[in-house]
Write a structure and sequence with these properties.
387 residues; alpha+beta; 4-stranded antiparallel β-sheet; binds zinc ion
Amino acid sequence: MSSENNDPSKHPATLLAKDLIRCASIAPNDAGAQLLLRKRLETKGFDVTAVDVDGVLNTWACYGTEGPLMVFAVHADVVPSGDANDWTSPPFEPEIREGKLFGRGAADMKGPLSAAVIAVEQFLIKQKKAMPLRIGFIIAGDEEPVNNHGTQDVLDYLKKEDVTIDYCMVTEPTSLSTFGDIIKVGRRGSINGFLTLLGKQGHSAYPELAMNPVHQSFKALQSLTERVWDQGDEHFPAAGFQITNVAAGTGAANVIPGKFNVQFNLRHGPGLSLEMVDASIRQTLDGAGLRYELKCVSDAKPFKTKQGILTQICREVVSEFSSQEPHLSTGGGTSDARFIAPHSRELVEFGLVGDTSHHVDEHIIIYDLVRLVRVYEKILDQLIDLA
Ligand SMILES: [Zn+2]
C-alpha cells in the first residue's frame, strides 16, 4: 500500500482538492480552476477543448477513441463564501482539521471533482494502449449561480461534434448523512411562482375605505402551504410548497398596502406539471374572491434516469465501499444532471456527504474522499470489463 493510502491528507485527491479550493472560482470568475484542470488532463493524454462563452470558461476533455463513452460531469465554480470572518479558517485557504478538509467547495464539488480526476488517472495507468472505453470530462464553469453558460454549452458543442454519451456520473454531493447512503437517479422538478395580490391602498385608520390584500389572502395562502400536492412514490418524495419571498407596504406605519407580492417555490415529481400547478393555484385564489396577477415558471422539469448497467454497478460498488445499501433517490435540489440526462444513455449522481455544502465551514471527511476515488475507479474497472 502506498503512503497516500495510509495518510489520506497526502492522497493526490486531497492535494488536488486543496489546489482547487485555493481558486476562488465564483462564476463568472474562474480564478484559475479550469486552467489547472485543463493542464492536468492534457498532461495525462486527454484531448482538451475550451468551450468558453461570454467570459465563462467551460471544458470538454476526452481520452481514447474506441468504445462506449463514460463522462464525469463536474463543475469548477462554487457559491460565494459569505462573510469570511464567520469561517473558522479562511474559505479559500484549505485547511485540514481532525481528518476533515475545510474550504469553500470542499463538498460541492471540488473534493468529488478531484476524486474523479485521480480515479481516472489511476485507472489509466493500468490500461494497455488500445482501451475499449472512452472517458470524458464536462467541466462547467457556471453551475451554481444562474446556469447561463456551463454544461448546456458543452452539450451543444458535443451535439455539434456528434458525440453521444453512453454513461454519465455527476459528482454532486449526493450522500445525506453518511458516505454512500444515497445515489441520485433523477431529480425533482422546480416551479417558481410570482404572485401579486391586488387591493386598495388607504389610511390604516379608515380600513373601510381601503382593501388590504395581505389580510384578504391569508387563508388562501395558508391552504396552498398545507395542500398535499402529490403523495410521492418510491423514487420521488412528496411535493413541497414553500413561500420564499413576501413584500408589501410603503414603509409607513399608517398606510394599508395596495399590493402584496408573494413568491413561492414548489418541488415536485412527474405527477405534477406547470399547467396543473398554475390552474390549481388560480382555482384557490378565484375561490377566495381575490384579485391577482400570477406567473408560474418551470425552473426544472422532473426526471428519472433509465436504470441499467451503470446504476447496477454504482450500487454494488458503493455498497462495497460504504458497507451499506445505498438508497436510490431523486430528492434534494436541482443539478446539471437534468441537462445531461436526455443526452446520455444512462446517468447517475454520486458524491460525498453534502450536509455542509453552501454552508459556512464547508468540509468533507478526507477518508471519504479517498473512498470516493476507489468507488469511481472501480466503476471504471467494471465498465471496461463489460466493454
Ligand atoms: Zn454542485
